[in-house]
Design a protein that fits this description.
Number of domains: 2
CATH architecture of the largest domain: 3-Layer(aba) Sandwich
Helix content: 25-40%
CATH superfamily of the largest domain: Acetylglutamate kinase-like
Mean pLDDT: 88
Number of helices: 14
Oligomer: single chain
Shape: globular
Largest sheet: 8 strands, mixed
Distance between the termini: 31 Å
């Protein structure tokens, strides 16, 4: 089991196992594992459930199925407790990102989330992501943190996704009904037969079951992200991972994450604009693997928004050399083209990004 950047999703059953508030019973071992990953030079993004469960005992509800406003109030008080509970187990600083499905669908907010995660990881800060239950409505909710974790893995360009719960993985049959059912260590392809093995959750504080975990795995593996369902309640699981073993169920990525993203940029994403770049930028992009800076842009064409795809051409030869996702809209890029990155704030009144197209959001189309 090899990984460089991993998203770890931790379910409510691990954060608040007795539904009476946050506990260190299971997350102490998880936090130790995250720290060990960081010490080994790996990057970790944590997606944590548990805010509703953490605040459940503090908001009067009188029902096993509270209303949406009641759950939102539980999340409002529980989120503070959940974050404090995580932070006490780490020597490094933690950060909080509360997002909704609407944030992930909006181009500008999507790119803002990506940039924030990049900076946090570069500074050794642990990003802790949760759905913004306090403001999310039914049509905006991702619905469960399994699928949220898969989307975060896509945004952050992780190579692996670990879904931690209180189950060992996918079994051939429901182990609660058939104790002889065997764990499936590797699933190379997700089809209806795999979904048929999934049962609903029996945990009253959890929002998903095995079905949502398989849905999340399907999203991830299609984009080149190896996904594992693991039992986070067993400390030995993390020792096995660090040894390189697979202690749960591994959903095999269809191809490498980098290859998947480059293929998506090259063949799927439609371009809404074009820029011409000078000789210096041409060399930096094709020979040094650099990002596109505003100083290298000589001409901007098209009506595009931040988050849209651009075709990048060599101004001298007229040859297309790359395509990638723009950090700026057409109007702002017109204003900053030809200027240095440290002049952006003076020109625009703010500096959303030091680069026009980040190297991770670009595919070079000519031989390097």
């Amino acid at each position: 089991m090899k990984f460089k950047r991993v998203v770890i999703k931790v379910g409510s059953a691990l954060v608040a196992p007795d539904a009476k508030g946050c506990s260190g019973k299971y997350i102490l071992a998880i936090a130790r594992f995250i720290s060990q990953c960081q010490q080994a030079g790996k990057e970790v993004i944590l997606v944590s459930s548990g805010s509703v469960a953490a605040g459940r005992s503090l908001i009067a509800h009188g029902s096993p199925n509270p209303s949406i406003p009641t759950k939102q109030a539980m999340a409002a008080v529980g989120q503070m407790k959940m974050m404090a509970n995580w932070q006490r187990f780490f020597d490094l600083p933690c950060s909080q990102l509360l997002i909704t499905h609407g944030d992930l669908k909006d181009r500008q907010r999507y790119i803002n989330i990506k940039n924030t995660l990049r900076i946090l990881l570069a500074n050794g800060v642990i990003p802790i992501v949760n759905e913004n239950d306090t403001v999310a409505t039914e049509e905006l909710k991702v619905g469960d943190n399994d699928n949220l974790a898969a989307l975060v893995a896509l945004v952050s360009e992780a190579d692996s996704l670990f879904i931690l719960s209180d189950v060992d993985g996918v079994f051939e049959a429901d182990p609660r009904l058939n104790p002889q059912a065997k764990l499936i260590p590797v699933i190379a392809k997700i089809d209806q037969s795999v979904y048929a093995m999934a049962g609903a959750t029996n945990n009253p504080i959890a929002t998903g079951g095995m079905k949502t975990k398989i849905q999340a795995a399907e999203k991830a593996v299609e984009n080149g992200i190896d996904t594992y369902i693991l039992n986070g309640s067993r400390g030995e699981v993390f020792e096995q991972i660090l040894r390189g073993d697979n202690p749960g169920t591994h959903f095999v990525a269809q191809h490498g994450a980098t290859r998947a993203r480059k293929h998506w940029l090259k063949h799927t994403l439609k371009s809404n604009g074009m820029v011409l770049v000078d000789t210096g930028a041409l060399s930096a992009l094709t020979k040094q693997g650099a990002s596109l800076l505003p100083s290298g842009v000589t001409k901007v064409s098209g009506d595009f928004k931040a988050g849209d795809c651009l075709d990048i051409y060599d101004a001298k030869s007229g040859q297309q050399i790359a395509k990638g996702i723009s950090q700026y809209n057409a109007r702002d890029l017109q204003r900053i083209k030809g200027y240095k990155s440290d002049e952006i704030a003076a020109l625009l009144g703010c500096c959303p990004s030091q680069v026009v197209v980040h190297r991770d959001d670009m595919v070079v189309l000519i031989a390097q």
